[in-house]
Design a protein that fits this description.
Number of helices: 2
Number of strands: 3
Number of domains: 2
Distance between the termini: 63 Å
Largest sheet: 3 strands, antiparallel
Shape: elongated
Helix content: 40-55%
Radius of gyration: 28 Å
Length: 98
């Protein structure tokens, strides 16, 4: 398990803090000391019986109906437009170098 720790300057020197669900912070004169102090707080909290549980949640269904690109009614027209554009650009390139 990893817990992200944000370290930033503060009036006391540096503040190290975690986000939710821990919402803990520690301040010290150096960044390393602030991180060490915060790690000690986290270790103490877990030693007292706290646990973190990961709960997977399925992604919500999109409010916009999604269909595969190849099934889109505009797909063939899109491919034709790409091919036409490529041909035009190739003709322009050839004309430039001739």
């Amino acid at each position: 398990m990893t817990i992200s720790i944000l370290v930033e300057p503060s009036q006391a020197g540096f503040r190290a803090r975690t986000g939710g669900p821990l919402d803990m912070s520690a301040e010290a004169t150096s960044a390393a000391e602030a991180v060490t102090a915060l790690q000690a707080q986290i270790d103490c909290r877990f030693a007292r019986g706290a646990i973190l549980v990961q709960h997977a949640v399925p992604a919500p269904q999109s409010p916009i109906p999604l269909i595969p690109l190849a099934e889109n009614p505009l797909f063939d027209a899109w491919l034709d437009a790409i091919e036409k554009y490529r041909e035009e650009k190739e003709l322009e390139d050839r004309a430039t170098y001739e």
